[in-house]
Amino acid sequence: MDTFCGANPATRLKVRFIMEVAWQAHFVKNMFIRPSEEELANYGEPDFVSFNAAKAKVENYKELGLNSETATVFNLKTNEQVILNTWYGGEMKKGIFSIMNYLNPLRGIASMHCSANTDKEGKSSAIFFGLSGTGKTTLSTDLSVSLSVMTSMAGMTKVYSTMKADAM
């Protein structure tokens, strides 16, 4: 499944997900930006490929110096992620989020896992930081203020570019 990670065309990644079960494709469809028909026609090669082999195990994990038959591995030379022996869908999302957190600072972009809002006059803003599920979006959703961005955002000079307001 071909997707985008990042709403800004200048900085987003083209990410291809290859998975073995249907619910993983559904998860990716909901978590990442789906290209339009025109964007798919011009998609070309992806910037990063994520292989989810949830049913496969690392049989020789001890020989490899690993702690279990489960692994999420990144190769930054070939721009690939391999997920083995885990049924947690978040490995796909968190994995690509980690890649964005690695790449963005190299491009002069500060990555933040946060939510933010601003007052109706646009004079006062607040940024809420925290781990997943700790209430960033809930805290930033106040009817007296304008919700400006949610979930994951990458800050550029005087510009905030959401990875996606309702998904990554």
From TrEMBL:
MF term (GO), any: phosphoenolpyruvate carboxykinase (ATP) activity
EC numbers for this chain: 4.1.1.49
Pathway: Carbohydrate biosynthesis; gluconeogenesis
Catalytic activity of the protein: oxaloacetate + ATP = phosphoenolpyruvate + ADP + CO2
One Pfam family, short name: PEPCK_ATP
GO terms under cellular component: cytosol
InterPro entries noted in UniProt: PEP_carboxykinase_ATP, PEP_carboxykinase_C, PEP_carboxykinase_N
Keyword tags: ATP-binding, Decarboxylase, Gluconeogenesis, Kinase, Lyase, Nucleotide-binding, Pyruvate, Transferase
Biological processes per GO annotation: gluconeogenesis
Family named by the database record: Belongs to the phosphoenolpyruvate carboxykinase (ATP) family.
Protein name per Swiss-Prot or TrEMBL: phosphoenolpyruvate carboxykinase (ATP)
UniProt source species: gut metagenome
Record lineage: unclassified sequences, metagenomes, organismal metagenomes
